[in-house]
């Protein structure tokens, strides 16, 4: 399959079940909602080292938020409900409770993931509970005024590790295609691209020659190793970057992959974009398979 | 002491010894250096819940970086050398190794904090070492090309918890003064303001009525509790925000406090800025005391 | 009428008929679409000195643009069709033709305002015409590749000078309310706020004691002149800022005024927002009257 | 001459004498200083259609500005003193006088270019003059409070049209090299790059086959015309972009060209950067010649 001169590999992205939640952070203005959300979703590129994968999902207008203020929605993903809850609580306490003018609300129906449920004790007995339309909110006195926080947010099954590779003839071209792809994916709801700027440049394989290391560089896709290993790169490929997508459903990830791959292909062969591929473990590990050529049909 | 109508309290900020390091992240352009640095220093507001306190220190021009590319310097602080090393390594592996086009260098003389020392094993035997002017660098093959990373960076004694409070007649005024103060502090080298946007709105006291909780809201500074507790706020104060400063030396923190307090006072009483105060434990816990009136002399 | 402690004056904004057009600028990525659009809509705050009033209306996803690339929509307003056409042509030639990777398309049905119609001659005979679905496009060879530009865009009747005043107890509070208001208005389609950051701080009256000057400071609303002139400000008002809205229809301006005033009132009296008023010439000059209390009902 | 695989042409940039001035815009915070400065320097890419060439020069810390607030320095260039004065006055009146919380100061010694000298009449007789250290300032009452503006700023001889071309194998690569170059030039004082994002993609030659047109596309550098005209491009070049630099002196432009060309060459041949060239009229028109190979020695 070829789109605008770009080869779409007959392969698939292999993805895994995760648990996810959404929270809504509002503030006096968008800038301060972003400050809080960026802190909360920082250092959250990969579940392995960060405890969760997280990012800002989208901006919210005042008429889309519970308190009529501007805000942002954040999505957080982890392997288990318990692990997710722990990450949400500690990140909310360090990055939202502390952030000037912010409030924190549920972004998914349900009450599995505590928001204010335990944070309220920071109020040292001065916190006040309000029940509005069946939802419990806490008003916690702080130096700046009050921190308004909903009791809990919901949890949902989700998918982590949707992905595709962009193979290009130079680093600048791979990066430009990634910028285009991430820009397009950012417009799709229910998904995030948790790596820095949405892009990962260090794809890994399972295992390593060093025993303690569970993952190491994916040498078959490393351009500088083309002469030394059994490579999957043709001679003209000099840079490969990966976009990893976590989403709430298969459909969401498919839409994001379609938007991202389309944007990369839009730059086309004339901009040195040679191939789109994807990362998988030959179907042995992940239960979700996203076939590139099906998605791009 | 009164500056532009703003009362400067006869009190002091109580701060603690920490360990700190600086690293330099370069990339193809500043935008991607920021992407990596923001991920690496995200979720790093307070040592208690985040493992370290970290932020971007400043932007670097191409002629200020080891590889002649644009970059940023980041500062990270922790209580112990070991704790700091662990945070730097895991954050570098998740947020710099993975970030497209980035390289990572020492920002302080010395080699106490591993950068590439262990990250190199990700290269699975294909990594290459270079010794230039006595510094060891690693070239680790990745899908995008190569990750260039220095062996290690230095460590230094440092100070955490420099701080001051801005007491204002409304939330919008306190926030405007904080924006001015953080803007001024951002121009000072060797310091960071680790909280979201540089500001903390939930100052805490040691202890709580709930046994398990080691810290809780500082009710004496909570405007909504003026009628219920022994308050430190006069009737017109309706919002208090805190700026917390970590720095490499006493002098650095003094300069930052001077710049920040000056900027807040510049807005003055006519903009509802009433008082500047600071957080301390009556001198019982922290070994560094920053007296506001001395600093502002 | 009082909203959250803020008095809504029983007055109206007086606005004028204008002509408007919309153009769409796409580029390799959003950043470069913004660079072009910001140049094109710069120095366009007021029709009096700038020749037109213009601003970015909103961001466009790849699936919303004619060439499937990311882009932004810009709106430009002038008093006459001829004046508008002249401004669009010169601004397109200086700021879009010149901007790397940009393309320029109609954003309103019609062909009254030339886009590529005359710009094409820059191609010096090498330009090529394409007719797609009844629309003519020009491909103009440039050093970077080709500038793709639609023949023309449409024109529509429009309204300039929708406005409201925010009266506050300090400058920082007025500014915070303006930021909130402009943030909310930015989410409304078909309108722009052409002044710097969306705000004007120098409201004017018709005429002056200096004969050559057609407009001068609106002293009845100047806080520093409360003691010297017949003021419209009560003693506690220390700062007044104005938000000026140009829109494609009465309904659009009403929606924008509602969103903006709501956001300002959301901060409320406790943040020093005292009154909302509006600018008019007692109905003598402008044919559109926007009554604040009707809009906020 | 070859740098990192990039050919440096044995040619020169031909530049012209201009007049320039610097002004300083301060505000309550950097964001609002930028809002004003971006409006003032918008639609100012080329002297031909915009009346002046202008851009933000650099950010200023509070201790670098006359009123101790954060600010930015802007540079404006025109062909004559009179033309420059007219542009500065109209742009200051539309974009700084109107911008909330802004103040406007001289950035160069001298008093040739009016700032407040005529703007003061907007005060309608209520303006107040202050003489501080031999400089006259005006306090003009406005709705927001007062507009503080210095009487005048200086003028200096300057140079417009310093330039270089980046020739690359694809559009994405040319753009990446331009981003790197503009990023590096932004760190150099006394210069601006007035085109959108600092880059021009539509280099022109003098004259056209259409009599009324004084300039048209530089077809010898148009990649799509390689087969039709006497081209200056070798077969692999598919995109050419130009960076135009205005500066206060020859030395400033040389430093900027060196920094920009170095940054582009840093990406190198492996990123498709093939050649650096420059625009000239064979020495017939401009009095300043910047030889690329001399600058890069």
Automatic annotation (TrEMBL), chains A, B, C, D:
Pathway: One-carbon metabolism; formaldehyde degradation; formate from formaldehyde (H(4)MPT route): step 4/5. Keywords: Acyltransferase, Cytoplasm, One-carbon metabolism, Transferase. One of its GO terms (biological process) is formaldehyde catabolic process. It holds the Pfam family FTR_C. SUPFAM superfamilies: Formylmethanofuran:tetrahydromethanopterin formyltransferase. Signal peptide: none annotated. Residues 1-142 form the Formylmethanofuran: tetrahydromethanopterin formyltransferase Ftr N-terminal domain. It catalyses: N-formylmethanofuran + 5,6,7,8-tetrahydromethanopterin + H(+) = N(5)-formyl-5,6,7,8-tetrahydromethanopterin + methanofuran. GO terms for cellular component: cytoplasm. Its EC number is 2.3.1.101. One of its GO terms (molecular function) is formylmethanofuran-tetrahydromethanopterin N-formyltransferase activity. Residues 145-295 form the Formylmethanofuran: tetrahydromethanopterin formyltransferase Ftr C-terminal domain. NCBIfam families: one_C_fhcD, PRK02114.1. Catalyzes the transfer of a formyl group from 5-formyl tetrahydromethanopterin (5-formyl-H(4)MPT) to methanofuran (MFR) to produce formylmethanofuran (formyl-MFR) and tetrahydromethanopterin (H(4)MPT). Belongs to the FTR family. Homotetramer. This is Formylmethanofuran--tetrahydromethanopterin formyltransferase. It comes from Candidatus Nitrosoglobus terrae.
């Amino acid at each position: 399959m070829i789109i605008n001169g770009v080869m779409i590999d007959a392969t698939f992205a292999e993805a895994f079940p995760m648990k996810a939640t959404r929270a809504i952070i509002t503030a006096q203005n968008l800038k301060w909602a972003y400050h809080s959300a960026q802190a909360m979703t920082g250092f959250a590129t990969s579940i392995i080292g960060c405890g969760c994968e997280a990012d800002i999902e989208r901006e919210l207008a005042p008429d889309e938020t519970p308190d009529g203020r501007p805000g942002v929605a954040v999505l957080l993903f982890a392997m288990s409900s318990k692990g997710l809850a722990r990450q949400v609580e500690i990140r909310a306490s360090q990055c939202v409770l502390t952030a000037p003018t912010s409030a924190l609300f549920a972004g998914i129906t349900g009450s599995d993931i505590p928001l204010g449920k335990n944070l309220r004790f920071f109020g040292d007995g001065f916190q006040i509970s309000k029940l509005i339309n069946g939802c419990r909110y806490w008003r916690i006195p702080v130096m700046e005024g009050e921190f308004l926080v909903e009791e809990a947010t919901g949890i949902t099954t989700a998918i982590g590790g949707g992905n595709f590779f962009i193979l290009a003839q130079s680093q600048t071209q791979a990066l430009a295609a990634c910028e285009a792809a991430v820009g397009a994916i950012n417009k799709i709801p229910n998904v995030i691209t948790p790596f820095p700027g949405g892009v990962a440049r260090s794809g890994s394989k399972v295992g390593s020659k060093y025993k303690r290391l569970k993952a190491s560089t994916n040498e078959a896709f490393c351009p500088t190793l083309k002469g030394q290993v059994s490579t999957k790169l043709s001679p003209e490929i000099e840079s490969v970057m990966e976009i990893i997508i976590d989403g709430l459903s298969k459909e969401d990830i498919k839409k994001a992959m379609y938007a991202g791959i389309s944007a990369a292909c839009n730059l086309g062969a004339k901009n040195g974009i040679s191939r789109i591929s994807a990362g998988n473990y030959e179907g042995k590990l992940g239960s979700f398979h996203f076939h590139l050529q099906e998605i791009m049909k």
